[in-house]
Amino acid sequence: MAKFYTEWAHFIIGLYLVQELFTGIKVGRIFYTNQGSQLLDGGMEVWQGYFQSIRPKLRKLMINVDLHATAFYERGSLIQLVVRILGKSTVEDLWRIHDRDRTKLEKCLKNLKIFVVLRFSRHRFRISKLTNTSASSTTFEVNGQQIDIATYFFNTYGRRLQYPFLPCVVVRNETYLPIEICNVVEGQRYMRKLNERQMADMIEFTCQPPQIRTNTINQGIEILNYRQNEYMYQFGFQISNDMVITQARVLPTPTLYYHPASKEDTFIPKDGLWNLKNKKVATGATLGSWACAVFGSERDYPIGTIQNFIRELVNTCQDAGMNIPNRNPPILHCNPQGGIENSLRQVWVRAGNSAKSKPQLILCILPNIGGILYAEIKRVCDTLIGVATQCIQSRHIMRAIRIYCANVCLKINVKLGGENSFIDPSQIPFITQRPTIIMGADVTHPAPGEQNTPSIAAVTASMDAKASRYAASIRIQSGRQEVIGDLAEMVKELLKTFYQTCGRKPERILFYRDGVSEGQFSTVLNEEIRAIKDACMSLDGRYKPTITFVVVQKRHHTRFFPIDTGIDGDRTGNCPSGTVVDSTIVHPFEFDFYLQSHPSLQGISRPAHYHVLLDENGFNADSLQTLTYNLCYNFARCTRAVSIVPPVHYASLVCRRARFYASGENWSNPDTPEGVGSASYCVVKSELLKTMYFI
Question: In angstroms, rounded to a whole number, what is the distance separating the alpha carbons of residues 597 and 605?
Answer without folding.
Answer: 10
